[in-house]
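Dear colleague,

Following up on yesterday's call, I've attached the two folding results inline so they're easy to grep. Please treat them as preliminary; we haven't cross-checked anything against experimental data yet. The first protein's sequence and structure tokens come first.
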Amino acid sequence: MDSQPMEIPRTTPLIAVVILNWNGAHLLREYLPQVVATTDSRISRIIVADNGSTDDSLNYVRQTFPERVEVMALGSNYGFAEGYNRAIAALDNSYRYAVLLNSDAATSKGWDSTMLKYMEEHPEAGACQPKILSYRQPDTFEYAGAAGGYIDRNGYPYCRGRIFATCEKDRGQYDNEAYIFWASGACLMIRRELYTEAGGLDPTFFAHMEEIDLCWRLQLAGYLCAAVPGAKVYHLGGGSLPAENPRKTYLNFRNNLLMLHKNLPKDVRRGILLRRRLLDTVAWARYILTLDFANAVAIWRAHRDFAAMRKNYDTNPARNLLGSAPGSDIDILSSYYLRRKHTFDTLD
């Protein structure tokens, strides 16, 4: 990474840093001061887009940061995906980039200028993410994105620095910029016009994997996604649903199937989804054998609902990215569970 400071030729901010909030006053109090302190107001405008909060979120923002943070009151709780879609649609056209930043993320000095510099110098990139570290354990990669996201040949996501539940220590091993398959929704910079052209986040997903689906569509449109580890963000993560929560299991399995159905060409879709059904049956059996019936039922419900919901999508992309995009030639299940390769740098 070139360490020379970036010249800033204009006074109007290029970046809208959008923090979606719903009754998150406690998170704003803990994280927003750090975001304000480390965000360059010459290039970035911080916007708290509020999903109809009933706590004192908006009063806190308006009273504490009247000049530095803009409040965008959406009026109702539209959820994560639709909330961001409405917020970004309402942005002024002068913004070249939008950043989706979680309300439980703390930024570091130079984070926005580093990502901006990369995007300005790489017009082929549609979106990028920083290095994402754990807020509670700053020397460890955070689950949601780590040093950049990938997807394997069967559609399972993994990251540089995090495979399944194994999060690596950050030793500088992934400090190189790299093209990735998906950028994390914890902190995702995207070209504003491209976000709209690609259709934004899919509100049907409700939660989990919306950003992977969006990044897949960006690549189908001819753009690339990148990890820019010279920028660092510290993310709390895990605040909505714990790892083994049946609701999270349901959303992850259902949304993964929907994502594959939407973004794979019809001539390969059926075979890959059949393989996924077999693999998901193994996961279902594991829950049954361990007497975890709630998560077993969640997987069954995910497949049942996918079968009904897939009729809402009539897409047939021309390209199959599984096997050709970065990292998609890996079988992450066999690598992790059979070959005991638990870190990204040991995969082959």
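Below is the second protein, in the same order (sequence, then structure):
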Amino acid sequence: MTQIADKQLADTRPRTFGWPAVFIGVLCVAAVFFALRGIISAAIDFTAGEPLAATGTILSALAWVCGGVGLAHNGRRMRRVAWSAWALNTVVPILTLAFQSDWLNSASPWFSGGSTYFYLPTVGAALALGWLFWSQPARVAARNAKPASENTTANN
């Protein structure tokens, strides 16, 4: 009985290849970059007596790392983490464009909508949300399933 249950729970989705793998890799490299730059910037801010800017920078780097790991892992729980992280990485920079904030360092990917990095963090986060929407397992299964009318006409 347990063998049958194990077979039903097996994930048979193939790995991502091509441009999606490159896209996920670029986002993961960017997450590492933002984490390293955020740690250095936060250390400088803490020693300068600006803990709020340091905390905001660390939170933005942590959101990028969680989003990158969530995309790379692609499990059910990690997809939820990725949805949350990339939504945060999209919404907060847009809000910082609308409302000037003193709680972020210029090294943060959220600072002024990502203007330090030519707005690429915000665009990348929005594209990551698009990829999460496009690659939902239910949507992929629906795109790959043939309608019943095609199956019957193919046999005739």
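For the second protein, one point worth flagging: The radius of gyration is 20 Å.

Best wishes,
A.L.
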